[in-house]
Design brief:
Keywords: Hydrolase, Membrane, Mitochondrion, Mitochondrion outer membrane, Necrosis. The chain has 226 residues and is an alpha/beta fold. The protein has two domains: 30 residues, no CATH class; 191 residues, Rossmann fold (3-Layer(aba) Sandwich). Strands 3-2-4-1-5-6 form a six-stranded mixed β-sheet, with helices on both faces. Helix 4 links the parallel strand 2 and strand 3. Helix 3 packs across helix 4. The protein starts with 9 loop residues before the first helix and ends in a 12-residue tail after the last strand.
């Protein structure tokens, strides 16, 4: 529903005379800028924590976040915002990354919290959430995809660079949906802690995946996936 023709009142269009008016309206509805989406998986955290507030970053996780922040800063891009999951490990990762990107606003959202997006195909034996989780989490994560991953607004004049700090399941699902791959295959991908996934959304709505789970900027002994 972001195609320019879909944004025009067809009844009103039919009442207009001449193609010139239609062309003008279409031009005003067309996106002109490219969106660069950087999806960051949170750093390593304390798996023994019972509640979310106890699942804080480990010392290694804090190091990973510093390395990710340094890498993002080294790209020399003018980042517009950092949107992050409201879960503790994502919030702490964001706070460390943001030190390397002074002045970039931070926005917290529950939509990007970790969850079970859709039943994976093929299934895995070590991870079997209750069926109700797919209905609850899946609807929320799909809503996050639709809300955040789309072509630029027609009013946007310049290319934008946005960072999203969230979780492996959310990122993997978003990548499948953005590339129009079967979303059931999301669990076939693996993402390291603090990794960078880069999606590009062109004005015509086409999406390209530039990097998936990049941690080449980290020393081998700092790389983890838990």
């Amino acid at each position: 529903r972001r195609e320019p023709l879909a944004l025009i009142n067809l009844k009103k269009k039919n009442e207009e005379t001449g193609e010139e008016e239609l062309a003008s309206r279409l031009h005003h509805c067309k996106a002109k800028a490219t969106r660069h989406i950087f999806l960051i998986r949170h750093s390593q955290y304390n798996l023994d924590g019972q509640a979310d507030k106890d699942r804080t970053l480990t010392p290694l996780g804090r190091e990973q976040a510093e390395l990710t922040g340094h890498r993002l800063a080294s790209l020399g891009l003018k980042f517009d915002q950092i949107i992050h999951s409201s879960m503790t490990r994502a919030t702490e990762t964001t706070e460390i990354i943001s030190k390397h990107l002074p002045g970039v606003k931070k926005i917290s959202t529950d939509m990007l919290r970790e969850g079970a997006p859709i039943e994976p195909d093929p299934p895995v034996s070590h991870w079997k959430p209750e069926a109700v989780q797919y209905y609850e989490d899946g609807a929320r994560i799909e809503a996050a995809f639709r809300n955040f991953i789309h072509r630029a607004d027609a009013k946007q004049e310049e290319d934008s660079y946005e960072i999203f700090v969230c979780h492996a399941n959310v990122i993997r699902y978003i990548v499948c949906r953005a590339l129009q791959f079967p979303p059931e295959g999301w669990l076939r991908m693996s993402l390291n802690n603090g990794s960078i996934t880069h999606l590009v959304i062109r004005p015509n709505g086409r999406v390209a995946l530039r990097t998936l789970g990049d941690t080449g900027f980290m020393p081998p002994d700092k790389i983890t996936r838990t």
